[in-house]
Amino acid sequence: MLFMLIMTAPQNKAIEIGKAFLKVVEKPPPPYLKSRGVYLTYGDGGHKWYNIVEIDDKHVSEGMTELTRRLVPFDDIEGLQTRIEILVSVRTAIELAMEMGRM
Questions:
Q1: Into how many domains does the chain fold?
Q2: Is 42's pLDDT higher than 90?
Q3: pLDDT of residue 9
Q4: What is the spatial distance between Cα 13 and Cα 72, in angstroms, rounded to a whole number?
Q5: CA 12, CA 83: separation in Å to the nearest integer?
Q6: I need a labelling partner for 101 at 20 to 30 A (CA). Which of 2, 7, 10, 25 fits?
Q7: d(CA 27, CA 75)
Q8: Do 100 and 16 meet the contact criterion of CB atoms below 8 Å apart?
Q9: pLDDT in tens, 86-102
Q10: Are 3 and 88 in contact (CB under 8 A)?
Q11: Are strands 81-87 and 33-43 parallel, antiparallel or unpaired?
Q12: What's the gap between Cα 99 and its chain centre?
């Protein structure tokens, strides 16, 4: 199952966030939690990070717990916001819509 972790923060927090990120990656994640890439954008509103995470279907509960645990080093950064979204493929979304009679 794919999730997108989205983090936003003011520009002046980049160094603090970088330090927290380095702390998080010191300990490798469990085998059922895999990052598929971390991406960054920035502009007048600050920085925004996207981390696409894959959690093995058999370990979704443990994976979400671990993902949340790995956010703890970011807790004290003022202005930082995090959000986790479930990602589904377009094909899956269409199949679900058809099952629900919405297509």
A1: 1
A2: no
A3: 94
A4: 16
A5: 20
A6: 2
A7: 18
A8: no
A9: 999 899 889 888 998 87
A10: no
A11: unpaired
A12: 28
Inform me whether the pLDDT recorded for 103 exceeds 80.
Answer: no
Domain with 39 in it: 2-99
Contact 42, 8 (CB under 8 A): no
d(CA 48, CA 11): 9
Paired tokens of 88:
């589904």
- In tens, the pLDDT along 9-34 reads 999 998 999 899 999 989 999 999 99
For residues 35 and 89, give the distance between their C-alpha atoms in angstroms, rounded to a whole number: 17
The gap between the terminal CA atoms of the chain, to the nearest Å, is 24
Q: Give the domain CATH number at 47.
A: 3.30.70.260
Share of the chain above pLDDT 90, in %: 76
